[in-house]
Specification:
This protein has helices spanning 2-22, 132-143, 147-163, 168-196, 203-219, 225-231, 246-253, 299-303, 305-314, 329-339, 355-359, 388-396, and strands at residues 31-38, 46-53, 56-64, 69-75, 82-87, 102-107, 111-117, 126-128, 271-272, 278-279, 288-294, 319-325, 344-347, 367-371, 377-382. By secondary structure, the chain is of the alpha+beta class.
């Protein structure tokens, strides 16, 4: 009996030890916990957590790596899994050898998420959880290797060149790295598109298809990959039209043929306010019209708000300013409330770079288009710096 009792106790102790080693921490409902274990990543590295909506992100929290570990714990009110991203970029780790990249991490109520990595390349880090969306994410992530690891290594070299003197030699080195990355991306995208022919439909599938459609239908047509992108369009019949990215994808599949240049007659299109009412640019016929293409998460877009408000007031009798949000309806509402954006603010039916954004060659934001009272495109330009809008209006409005 004594021996048996000893054996039972020892067995129980062993069981408890194994249980503590193999079981994940319990996370209460209404919270999530992310824990990272890293090797070959120096202590004091800053890791950021970002909430992802569409193609943009917003910082949520930061942690510092200590003894190879970092963690994020927060509340979550939604019953649906939420898409997040982990980033350790040069922005807050200058000169430490990190690439310009991020790792997608899904969180959900009551879930424990484990991140493991053995280098600084971020997208090579593995994410484990019981969230189905993460499984799809991991499948697509692994499809990218081994080329993605090489791509990330080139990105590290590019980040170092950004901090180096801007000599002609360094510019050429950067360009060469960019060309190498483009070749690797093409290999990765070809493999991804082939997989997507029969892959299970998921939010990750839609995100990838949206990104690839934008790239190969809107920006860089490719003799092999563009037809492959179009060949997947039939799978959109499997998708709920209310799903994220659905309208944006359809916009890329049905891009307008007309492209407007300076001196051309303006092109109009359907635009919608926050209440869903339909509007057209022709409502301002007889006035100058300044189009301001923007989206949530665009720092220069937000920086321009005070000056754009001044310009709107200064020329209110002669010019109408029309903000065109390229994001989702939700993003537009949040941004307008958060930054107290005033004036005429409309959006296209589909978010992204299709529709009027394609017509007016919007490749980056903020993008501005000034149209004359006669309906001619006077000037198109991209980017904002303090005082630039006032200078443009002084130069162009007669």
């Amino acid at each position: 009996m004594k021996t048996r009792n000893v054996l039972v106790v020892i067995g129980g102790a062993i069981c408890l030890a194994l249980s503590s080693c193999n079981s994940d921490p319990k996370v209460p409902e209404g919270e999530y916990l992310i824990e990272g274990e890293l090797e070959n990543v120096p202590d004091s590295t800053v890791v950021g957590l970002f909430k992802i909506t569409g193609h943009s992100g917003k910082s949520i929290a930061y942690d510092t790596v200590i003894d190879g570990k970092f963690s994020f714990r927060d509340t979550i009110t939604s019953f649906k899994p939420r898409k997040m991203a982990i980033n350790a970029s040069n922005f807050f780790n200058p000169g430490k050898g990190f690439p310009s990249a991020q790792l997608t991490v899904w969180v959900a109520s009551g879930n424990y998420i484990k991140v493991k990595g053995d280098d600084k390349l971020i997208r090579t880090w593995e994410v484990k959880s019981s969230i189905p969306e993460q499984e799809a994410e991991e499948t697509f992530r692994q499809l990218r290797f081994p080329e993605d690891k090489e791509w990330l290594q080139y990105s590290v070299q590019q980040e170092a060149l950004r901090l180096a003197p801007r000599t002609e030699a360094n510019k050429q080195k950067y360009q060469l790295l960019d060309e190498k990355q483009s070749k690797l991306s093409r290999i990765i995208n070809l493999r991804t598109l082939e997989y997507m022919k029969d892959a299970p439909m998921s939010e990750k599938w839609l995100f990838e298809y949206c990104s690839l459609a934008q790239h190969y239908l809107r920006y860089k047509p490719d003799s092999v990959l563009t037809p492959l992108v179009r060949s997947l369009s039939g799978r959109m019949a499997e998708v709920d039209p209310s799903s994220e990215f659905y309208q944006e994808i359809m916009g890329y599949l049905n891009l307008p043929e007309q492209i407007v240049n300076e001196g051309d007659t303006m092109v109009d299109g359907d635009l919608y306010d926050l209440e869903g009412n339909l509007h057209r640019l022709s409502e301002f016929k007889g006035k100058y019209i300044l189009l301001d293409f923007w989206d949530r998460g665009c720092g220069p877009c937000y920086a321009s708000i005070p000056e754009m408000t001044e310009v709107s007031q200064q020329y209110k009798d002669r010019m109408a300013v029309v903000g065109i949000c390229l994001g989702t309806e939700e993003n537009m509402k949040v941004a307008i409330k958060e930054y107290q954006i005033t004036g005429t603010q409309w959006r296209q039916a589909a978010s992204g770079m299709s529709g009027l954004a394609a017509v007016y060659q919007v490749n980056a934001i903020p993008r501005y288009v000034l149209i004359s009272p006669e309906g001619k495109v006077l000037k198109m330009w991209t980017g904002y710096s303090e005082g630039s809008l006032k200078e443009r209006m002084k130069e162009l409005i007669r």
